[in-house]
Amino acid sequence: MDLGLQGRTAFVCASTAGLGRAVAEAIGHEGANVVVTGRRGTEAAAVAAGLPSAIGLEVDLLDAGSRAQAVAAAEEAFGVIDILVVNGPGPKASPAADLSPSDAGTAFAQLFTPGHDLVSRTLPGMRERGWGRILAIGSSGIAAPLENLASSNLGRAALAGYLKTLAAEVAPDGVTVNLLLPGRIATDRVAALDAVTAARTGADVDDVRRRSEQTIPAGRYGDPAEFGAAGAFLCSAPASYITGIALRCDGGLVRSL
């Protein structure tokens, strides 16, 4: 299938590792220009060097000035941004009973504000040109809140509500807005969460992973490349009639439809 991404430009947040990198690589190998971003510019440049047409930028997603500079640099390099992939590190693990007002504010600042700002900067051009893709890498916690991840559940739900509302508003302009929700994908972030669970429960981290895998119908953690392929499709031309959805890539982990 031709995904119709040749010559398109994708700005992919937090794409030096994990799920962001998987999506960036999948889109890049389909012929798109990719703007790889991360807190460490050398790592962003290294990932970009492995793609056919890409640049790497050092970006602090929590800093408005850094976000603005990155968008300007991307437009200088490739002209326009056709695809925005919203992504970022999750807040610390914590139970809901321990959530403080400060924790709630931090969750909103980390998981909602950067995505909203970047959408505001790139969406007008997409609407004017009559083509655009906005994809947010979320969490299965949007569909079923995750234990001990109250801050993540809160912040990601706020972003999901905003994007679902936005999707209906911009669909007539040829812009799709979707979320891609991972389950247990084999990334450093998931390994870190398993380690937290092991420390909290006194279990061996390998036993934590084995028990986690037993809850997944597919019987394993996902490969980042599988997640990246799903992301590339949602950003593609053939996916033009898919908007306002939260697609789970989770091996059947969440039991609801």
How would you concisely characterize the structure shown here?
It contains 9 helices and 7 strands, in the order βαβαβαβααβαβαααβ.
Could you characterize the architecture of this molecule?
With 257 residues, the protein is α/β, with parallel strands linked by helices. It has one domain (9-184, 223-249): Rossmann fold (3-Layer(aba) Sandwich). Helix content is 46%, strand content 14%. The protein is built from 9 helices and 7 strands. The chain has a 7-stranded parallel beta sheet, sandwiched between helices. Helix 4 packs across helix 6 (150-170) and helix 7 (188-201) crosses helix 8 (205-214). The longest helix has 21 residues, at 150-170. It is globular, with a radius of gyration of 18 Å. The relative contact order is 0.15.
Going by CATH, the homologous superfamily would be NAD(P)-binding Rossmann-like Domain
- Residue windows where pLDDT falls under 50 for at least 5 positions: none
Number of strands: 7
Q: Number of DSSP helices?
A: 9
> Overall pLDDT, averaged?
95
